[in-house]
From TrEMBL:
This is Uncharacterized protein. InterPro entries: P-loop_NTPase.
């Protein structure tokens, strides 16, 4: 696969690369070396790459690997997050993020920005990426793990309700005295991630 097993391969992941130009409108990759080379070959001037995906999908790993191969600056949105607030987009330190971004700009500099709600964060900063990469976590048979989960409902609120019910059922399995009549409420961050990805899944 081009990456040692110890370094973690993309055997259980794939990335979808999207761009407005026909040269690379939407392609699927499972090898970081091939992806890096495709990015180099497809753009005369590549400045900003965003890496999107549900939490735990492998965004940070891919960003680190690509940054190494492209000699790029890697900005992780989590670095600018006030974690104790219980959300994401409304609790990022945008001024600090914008300053860091602007300091990183330069001739022949590529910036990789990754995070769970990265497209909407870029919109708040009035920035438009050259490329959006969406990381998918796969399970046996090549099925998209998080896609299967999101398909549980017709909208984000239905999925949130189903996940809360599953947590309630799981809790009752390990605690005979658990009060399963009480509402289980997902964190604000988890709800935000579910709602975001319903609106920003790759087509």
């Amino acid at each position: 696969m081009g990456i040692d097993k110890e370094e973690r391969s993309f055997r259980e992941e794939e990335v979808i690369c999207q761009h407005e130009n026909q040269a690379m409108s939407q392609k699927i990759f499972d090898n970081v070396e091939v992806l890096a080379q495709e990015l180099i070959n497809s753009f005369e001037e590549l400045k900003v790459i965003v890496i999107d995906g549900i939490d735990g999908s492998g965004k940070s790993f891919l960003a680190t690997e690509l940054a190494s191969r492209l000699n790029a600056v890697h900005l992780d949105l989590d670095t600018f997050l006030d974690r104790e607030k219980g959300g994401f987009k409304d609790y990022l330190r945008y001024e600090e993020l914008k300053r860091t971004y602007e300091k990183s700009l330069g001739k022949n500099t590529i910036i990789i920005i990754e995070g769970v709600c990265v497209i909407e964060v870029m919109e708040r900063l009035y920035l438009k990426p050259d490329v959006r990469i969406y990381v998918k976590r796969l399970i046996a048979g090549g099925m998209w793990f998080d896609g299967k989960f999101l398909d549980l409902g017709n909208n984000a609120d239905e999925v949130i309700k189903i996940e809360e019910e599953r947590i309630r059922e799981f809790s009752s399995m390990f605690n005979d005295k658990a009060d399963t009549t009480n509402d289980v409420v997902l964190s604000g961050l988890r709800k935000e991630i579910i709602r975001y990805h319903f609106g920003h899944l790759p087509h």
